[in-house]
Amino acid sequence: MDFSKISLTFGMHREKEVIWLAFEYNKDLINEIKQLLPTAKWSSTQKKWHVPDDNAVRDLLHLPMKEYMGKRVMPRLSFNNQAQLQRMMDELRLRAYGEPTIRTYSVEVAQLMYLLKEFPIQNLTSERLRAYLLYCFEVEGISVNQMHSRLNALKFYFEKVLGRDKFFMEIPRPQKPSSLPKVFSEKDIERLFEVIDNQKHRLMLQLCYGMGLRVSEVVRLKIADIDSGRMLVFINNGKGKKDRYVPLPESILDDLRSYYREYKPNIYLFEGANRGQYAIRSVQGVFHTAKEKAKIRKKVGIHGLRHSYATHLLEYGTDMSFIQKLLGHNNIKTTEVYAKVSNTHLAKVKSPLDRMKKS
């Protein structure tokens, strides 16, 4: 979307914070806005489009995030617990945790602090914490995955911030469900790419699949990371702060060169309106729009492109240990899960029903 054609201003509409979008009438631009921002609405009184002013929308519009902890969390906590939450955030930053992890941990610990009210969180006993976790399951009804997230945050606070190494020894951790990665067929992938007219958008998703990249790695790619001479791409500071190289698909090289000549990116391969790093949510929006347009009904997110890359490589006969290195997995067991969804062996299995009908 060409944001240079849109004037963005902050305001209020019907007692809610909104972002106003003002531009000269353009039917194609309106369609793009509706695709990128499904919550966009037209105000007949103001004669302008508007969207809710929240961080999800700001991310899509490449705007600075709203003050996260200050406005949404801190005022609801006691003075003591505010200080403890800030102490945990400082410790996370000193240990070089990423901002998404800091936000997640802060929100999870704050959920407990809300219930504690004036009670100091550092005085909590393991018995009271067990009772709280039971409350999370029975009353709040949180999922097993969210419970693990909450436990990780609380464990960090009590063990790393307060130094209580054995505080969680008697607190059980719920067993995670054994779920398999969801993948696309090669025909699904082809249909997905075929419906994307925008060259930039198509390349983003092609790199997710063609090199098995996480969406966060795609938006962090820099022009200097592409080595067309060696046909390699350098993935800097991937998950777990690990670097790795992945092969650059030959089939995409001409499209990359064409894209570079047209868009002339400065630092990042894919840049936003202000020449900064492209927003992750924007790439996710491109994916979901394309999936809908291609009429792919599978409930698979953009990470499914990375899963499909690994699964298809395995089906082509690529060695498991090599796939592990390409994906940047620490443990081969993480990679071995793709053997469970690979069609290589499953396709050879004949159902007893098929044999019965042949006889």
TrEMBL record:
Entry's localization field: Cytoplasm
GO biological process: DNA integration; DNA recombination
Keyword hit for DNA-binding: yes
UniProt GO MF annotations: DNA binding
Annotated InterPro entries: DNA_brk_join_enz, Integrase-like_cat_sf, Integrase_catalytic, Integrase_recombinase_N, Integrase_SAM-like_N, Tyrosine_recombinase_XerCD
Record keyword Aminoacyl-tRNA synthetase present: no
Every Tyr recombinase domain range: 179-351
Alphabetical keyword list: DNA integration, DNA recombination, DNA-binding
Annotated Gene Ontology cellular component terms: cytoplasm
Main subcellular location of this protein, as a coarse class: cytoplasm
Gene3D superfamilies, alphabetized: 1.10.150.130, Intergrase catalytic core (1.10.443.10)
UniProt protein name: Tyrosine-type recombinase/integrase
Natural source organism: Rhizosphaericola mali
